[in-house]
Write a structure and sequence with these properties.
With about 120 residues, this protein is α+β, with helices and mostly antiparallel strands. The strands form 2 sheets. A 6-stranded antiparallel β-sheet has the order 1-2-3-9-8-5. Strands 4-6-7 form a 3-stranded antiparallel β-sheet. It contains 4 helices and 9 strands. The chain is globular, with a radius of gyration of 13 Å. The chain has one domain: OB fold (Dihydrolipoamide Acetyltransferase, E2P), CATH 2.40.50. The longest helix has 8 residues.
Length: about 120
Amino acid sequence: MNVPENLKYTKDHEWLRVEGAFCFVGITDFAQGELGDIVFIEIETVGETLDKEEVFGTIEAVKTVSDLFMPIGGEVIEINPALEDSPDLVNSDPFGEGWMIKIKVSDAGELDEMMSASEYSDLTG
């Protein structure tokens, strides 16, 4: 299982990549593997400011539909447009082309509460 060192992680199996005042969010390799083939992603929260752990969308796989949770509070400013036609990018490249949303962080202090790669690896062990 791939767990890049440069990302932050949540107990909900989401990752966060910090780029200045913005962060990219997606689900982990572990999560996409558990979900199976992803067929649809619904995110209708662009322009909304959400708190940590609020639902920002849903992900539908062949097996199930799951909520997607904000790893930290912030404004959803962009959705990955490639996912509309190719939701399977989350399966093939969860940490790259399969990113889901870009957010403007409300409270950078919340980043300190997230797990490191080693902590996340221990969780999924």
